[in-house]
Amino acid sequence: MGLAWTAMGGSTLYVETALVEQGEGKGALLLTGQLGDVMKESAQIAHTVARAILLQKEPDNPFFADSKLHLHVPAGATPKDGPSAGCTMITSMLSLAMKKHVKKELAMTGEVTLTGRILPIGGVKEKIIAARRSEVKTIIFPSANRRDFDELAANVKEGLEVHFVDDYNQIFELAFGSNSKPQI
C-alpha cells in the first residue's frame, strides 16, 4: 500500500499489477487510473528498477521480458500525480513476478531513481495520519525524511514501526523478508 498527499490531506494509495499476456518477448507495461505525467514516468522507472532487481534476486526468472503487465491505481475516477508511489509500484510488480505476498499492515512512500535510490517526499504528517486510519502498523519512508518525522508530535508517531531507507533493496527486505514463501 502506498501513501499519498493531496489537497484534502493524506490518503492510502492502492497499486495493483496484473498479468495481461505472457509469451517470449511480450514484455510491456499498460498504465491506468487517471495517472498524471509524473506518475506515468514514475511507473516506467519502477518497471525498469523491478526488472533489474528481479534479475539480481532471481536471474533465471524471465517474467518481465515475457509478460505484458497492467498497473492500475484505483480509484480510477480520481486524477493522481507525483513520484512518491514509485517504491509501491516496484513492490507490486515484484510481488507478481516472484509470486510472493507483501507483508501485511505495511505502507510505503518514496520516489525511486533508475538506480534504485529512494528520494524524499512531501506530506510526512498527512501520510502518517492516513496510515493510522487504515490500521497500518509499519511505514517505510525515505531516509531524507527522518528529520520531518522526528519533528512530529509523539502522539502522531506512537505505536508505529517506522523504517527509513536509502535504496530499494532495503524496502525489498522489509516488504518480502529474506525467507518469504511464494504465493500458492
From TrEMBL:
<dbReference type="GO" id="GO:0007005">
    <property type="term" value="P:mitochondrion organization"/>
</dbReference>
<dbReference type="GO" id="GO:0004252">
    <property type="term" value="F:serine-type endopeptidase activity"/>
</dbReference>
<comment type="similarity">
    <text>Belongs to the peptidase S16 family.</text>
</comment>
<dbReference type="Pfam" id="PF05362">
    <property type="entry name" value="Lon_C"/>
</dbReference>
<feature type="active site">
    <location>
        <position position="127"/>
    </location>
</feature>
<keyword id="KW-0720">Serine protease</keyword>
<dbReference type="InterPro" id="IPR008269">
    <property type="entry name" value="Lon_proteolytic"/>
</dbReference>
<dbReference type="GO" id="GO:0051131">
    <property type="term" value="P:chaperone-mediated protein complex assembly"/>
</dbReference>
<dbReference type="InterPro" id="IPR014721">
    <property type="entry name" value="Ribsml_uS5_D2-typ_fold_subgr"/>
</dbReference>
<protein>
    <submittedName>
        <fullName>Lon protease homolog 1, mitochondrial-like</fullName>
    </submittedName>
</protein>
<dbReference type="GO" id="GO:0004176">
    <property type="term" value="F:ATP-dependent peptidase activity"/>
</dbReference>
<dbReference type="InterPro" id="IPR020568">
    <property type="entry name" value="Ribosomal_Su5_D2-typ_SF"/>
</dbReference>
<dbReference type="GO" id="GO:0005524">
    <property type="term" value="F:ATP binding"/>
</dbReference>
<feature type="domain" description="Lon proteolytic">
    <location>
        <begin position="1"/>
        <end position="178"/>
    </location>
</feature>
<feature type="active site">
    <location>
        <position position="84"/>
    </location>
</feature>
<dbReference type="GO" id="GO:0006515">
    <property type="term" value="P:protein quality control for misfolded or incompletely synthesized proteins"/>
</dbReference>
<dbReference type="InterPro" id="IPR008268">
    <property type="entry name" value="Peptidase_S16_AS"/>
</dbReference>
<dbReference type="GO" id="GO:0005759">
    <property type="term" value="C:mitochondrial matrix"/>
</dbReference>
<keyword id="KW-0378">Hydrolase</keyword>
<keyword id="KW-0645">Protease</keyword>
<dbReference type="InterPro" id="IPR027065">
    <property type="entry name" value="Lon_Prtase"/>
</dbReference>
<dbReference type="GO" id="GO:0003697">
    <property type="term" value="F:single-stranded DNA binding"/>
</dbReference>
